[in-house]
Amino acid sequence: MAWSRFRKKKDMPEGLWVKCRSCNQTLYTKELLANLQVCHHCGFHAHQSARERAITLVDPRSFIEMWDDLYTQDLLDFVDKEPYPEKIRKTATRSGLTEGAVAGTGTIDGKPVTICCLDFSFMGGSMGAVVGEKVTRAIELAADERIPAIVVSCSGGARMHEGMLSLMQMGKTSAAIARLNREKGLYLSVLANPTTGGVMASFAALGDVIFAEPGALIGFAGPRVIQETLRTELPEGFQTAEFLREKGFIDRIVLRKDLRAEIGKVIDFLWAYPEEQIERYAPPPPPPEEEGPEGDDGVGENAESLATTAADGEDATPAESDEKAE
Length: 326
Ligand SMILES: [Zn+2]
Hints:
Elements: E1 17-19, E2 26-28, H1 29-34, H2 50-57, E3 64-66, H3 84-95, E4 101-108, E5 111-118, H4 129-145, E6 149-155, H5 163-182, E7 187-195, H6 197-200, E8 209-212, H7 223-230, H8 241-246, E9 252-253, H9 259-270, H10 275-280, H11 299-308
Parallel strand pairs: 5-6, 6-7, 7-8, 8-9
Antiparallel strand pairs: 1-2, 3-4, 4-5
């Protein structure tokens, strides 16, 4: 019987296919991973986990994670639906992350950088003390080492569970960037979907060059709040990356697959490295069997290496997240 040729739905391994949130097409998870979580039908840039992003943004094998031993403390004894430490514990188990940011060093076109990426699947990428500390350390290390800093923001804003301590991170990260600026350092900010609230009102907006991913929602307060406060119709495309580029706030909108090359060009143009710095951060050579075909830009290789550490966390979207932007 013809039906027997089809596997029953319940026999299908879970997580093999996902639906694109924009065009509703079914996508093969592995293919999506290799394509940096960008839908190959409509080009929608879906959420990419922080570790995935850090590994694929820099040269293959060059990312070295740092400060992964920082853990959140519940100094306010905060309880909403459940105690804050319990919420952190559950989120950490689900996402495979200890906190909402992954930071470290890597190279782009062989040039060393510090990098910090925020993860929206970890409590909406909200900025608590640990996220703020990781961003600050990445910026401070860049100042000390005389190398550029890159921060990829993807956040709903400050983390209400940490109250004032969360808001303090805006001042702390901004002060670190001010110091980097005084010392004539280079700081590149990348805005992914979404970048809002206290993150947008601090380090995300302070880049010497600001990149954004296509279609990213970028702003401080949500459009409804603004509309109700101003009692006026908002222009079309308000708070999208494209709108903000038109208004001069964003320098470039770059496809995820082109981001490494674009950042490489900007660094090449704006930064001069001492030779020994380049040697010190050089990634280890590839194992012989990993050597790809000529002309491989490393993206495929990165995706391969990601396959084993594939984000097992949920793919949260702004609409689905219950996290509150500040
Ligand atoms: Zn799509």
